[in-house]
Design brief:
The chain has about 100 residues and is an all-beta fold. The chain has one domain: Jelly Rolls (Sandwich). It has no helices and 10 strands. It has strands at about 5-10, 20, 25-35, 40-50, 55, 60-65, 70, 80, 85-90, 95-105. Strands 1, 3, 7, 8 and 10 form a 5-stranded antiparallel sheet that branches. Strands 2, 4, 5, 6 and 9 form a 5-stranded antiparallel sheet that branches.
């Protein structure tokens, strides 16, 4: 099957665990960037839950004002299956922007 490149998700991270992306088919995440728009440092946590499995945490990051981080960067990939989810939470509601790009089958 062919993969189609796409902007998979974008938005702002909540102050409590919330789903920011749900895979509907086999998906290859090519980039996952976060950016702190607040003057206050933000602690960001991300986890991936495979369909029917337990959540697995990514490293926690603390971002200063106008600082960014990458969970998946150029040259790396994160492969998801249908119904896998990416969840995130931040210190403060709606001040950390995120973008997830990749390709779906």
């Amino acid at each position: 099957m062919a993969f189609t490149g796409a902007s998979l998700a974008d938005g702002q991270i909540a102050a409590a665990w919330a789903t920011i992306y749900t895979s509907t088919a086999k998906t290859i995440v090519k980039s996952f960037h976060i950016f702190n728009t607040s003057a206050t440092p933000q602690t960001v946590e991300v986890r991936v839950t495979r369909s029917g499995s337990t959540a697995r945490a990514f490293p926690r990051v603390v971002l200063s004002q106008n600082e960014s981080a990458q969970y998946v960067s150029d040259g790396d990939t994160l492969v998801l299956s249908a119904s896998d989810i990416i969840e995130a939470q931040s210190t403060t509601l709606n001040v950390v922007d995120y973008t997830i790009t990749g390709a779906t089958e």
